[in-house]
Structures are given as C-alpha cells and as structure tokens.
Amino acid sequence: MRLLLTIGLFFTSLVVVGQINEAKLATTIKEFHQSLVKKNTVSINQQTDKALSYGHSNGWIETKAEMIKNLETGYTSYKSIKEDSLQVTINENVAHARFVGDYEVSLNGGNTVIYHLKVLEVWVKKGKRWLLFARQAVRG
Fold it and tell me: How many whole angstroms separate alpha carbon 131 and alpha carbon 52?
C-alpha cells in the first residue's frame, strides 16, 4: 500500500512540476513579446536562438539578424502584442506554444495595422534558458 501511495505522489509531483515549467515558459513568451514592443534588442538577442526562423503571416521569413536589424532601424515597429488562449507544451528540451494574437504593427514608417493571427512558436532549452527557435503565423 505504501508503495502505491509513494508512486502516486511521485507522478502527482511530476504533473505539478510540468505545470510550473509550462507557466514559467508562458511568462518568458510574454516577456519576449514585450521586448519586441519595446525594441529591446539586447533582450531579444538573449531570448532567441542563433538559427531563428521568424515567419510572418504573409510568407516573409526573417533570420535573427534580420529581425533585430529591422527593429533597430524602425523598419518593423510593434506597437502592441496581445496573446489570447496561450497553450504551452514541453517535451524535455523542446516546447511549442500556440496562441491567437493581436499584433499592432507598422512597417517602414507606414500606417499602423492590427493583425489577428494564429501563432505557433517553437522554443528550445539551452542550459537553463528557453530560446525561441522558430515562429510561424497565419491570419486568423
């Protein structure tokens, strides 16, 4: 009986730890989005993998260097990002996040447009840090 209780408690603790890890990654994801809005390229550099593939809903794909350069030059300007229905799933050192987001953006100094997007982000854990590895959005 004690063995069954111990096994049950062990698996319960694994579920709780998994939920805590997913919640922490969800916070990291929201912080990354706010770094885009604030044009905090130091933070963005630390939160993204060197092999980043950042896909937009129109088919445009940026590398990490291109994304940072476009933020620094003002070519891309995120005014706000609001996530809804954020779901995070972690499998060892890889995670995916799916959400619906409203992105308020202007390109090349043009008019600000709000895009309602369905987004998939892939995150990899390197050391103790989660890094954005890939992102793809479609209009929703």
Answer: 9
CATH C-level class of 2-139: alpha beta
Domain ranges of the chain: 2-139
Cα–Cα distance between 19 and 78 in angstroms, integer? 30
The reported pTM is 0.84
Residue 57, SS3?
coil
Tokens of residue 5, six digits: 């209780």
- 109 φ/ψ sector (left φ>0, alpha ψ -120 to 50, else beta): left
Q: Give 25-75 pLDDT, tens digit per residue.
A: 999 999 999 999 999 999 999 999 999 999 999 999 999 999 999 999 999
DSSP 93-126: TEEEEEEEEEEEEEETT---EEEEEEEEEEEEEE
